Amino acid sequence: MQPARPTLRALRDDLKLSLPSARQPLDELDHPLLVKARELFAEDKTGHERIRAIDDEILFKVKVQRWRGAVWTDKDLNLPWLVAAGQREDGSMDDFYSALEANAKAARARYNTDHRQPLPGGTYVGHLLPGRDDHDRYQLEAGTRLVRQLSSAIRELTRGSLHDGHEHAADFATFRLGILVRAEDGHETYVAVRITGSVPEDLTAVVLRHVPGCEPADWYPEYALPSRSLLPAEQAWSTLMDPKAAAELLNEG
Q1: Which helix (H) or strand (E) holds 156?
Q2: Which of 132, 157, 227, 243 lies at a 20 to 30 A Cα distance from 62?
Q3: What's the total number of domains in the chain?
């Protein structure tokens, strides 16, 4: 299960939060209700309390402090969305969910007035579910998620190769990334990056920029690795690593 995230409408209208840049994924926002939703929906098998008054979609309750929320799960993406939120007023236990039910019944009545084919059931919450803008934002954040994944993997691969002098590799969705570090006492530390598969130039630049201890402008194309020639589907670059950065990376491990 992916981390729970708010719809743009719930973020703006219910939580009263400003939309951050795409470098800040919405599933990482520090709000009590969002933190609780991520906690509750972290595991697929965790039981949840359904909002029984809503019958056209399956919504679940999220409660923390005075905050109340409704979560809907996109089963295709395995992604929980906080689609509505509000605060419990003093002296009231279920005012948010009562208001949600009333609004859903009114939305159903409006829908049936405007459409020839009436909706079954007693409620309609389709207007609360994630729409095109929500999915566009989710895709926009994919770049941030990939860069973070790459950065972490590159650091681990580089550290591993520093330890044993062998190439360490990892598979991603469309390519395989390998890093080889050769360090000898009294000599420069050589680093080679190998990519097998098709990747755009901007992604290659991201990979090279995140290798620790290496200047992004100092990479040069390679036509062979230290132990063999490149295969047709491979491309490689090499440079020298700053020895101080290499030592710090080893100490991290």
Answers
A1: helix 142-164
A2: 132
A3: 2
Q: Which of 79, 97, 130 is the last residue of a domain?
A: 130
Asked if the structure places residue 135 within a domain, the reply is no
Residue 82 buriedness (CB in 10 A; 0-12 / 13-18 / 19+): buried
pTM, two decimal places: 0.76
**47 and 60 Cβ atoms separated by less than 8 Å:** no
Q: Is residue 213 part of a domain?
A: yes
Give 252's pLDDT tier (boundaries 50, 70, 90): confident
What is the per-residue DSSP string for 102-154? HHHHHHHHHHHHH-SSPPSSS---GGGS--HHHHHHHHHTHHHHHHHHHHHHH
Q: Which two tokens stand for residue 164?
A: 């044993």
- CA-CA-CA-CA torsion sign (14, 17, 19, 24): negative
91 and 199 share a domain?
no
H or E, element range at 203: helix 201-209
Tell me the C-alpha to C-alpha distance, in Å, between residue 176 and each of 170, 197, 233.
6, 7, 10
**Structure tokens given for 3:** 């981390």
Residue range 24-66, pLDDT digits in tens = 999 999 999 999 999 999 876 678 999 999 999 999 999 999 9
- What is the residue range of 202's domain? 143-252
Closest CA to 72 of 63, 62, 64, 82: 82
Which residue shows structure tokens 């019958």?
55
Half-sphere exposure of 146 (CA within 13 A, CB side): 17
**pLDDT the model gives residue 223:** 86
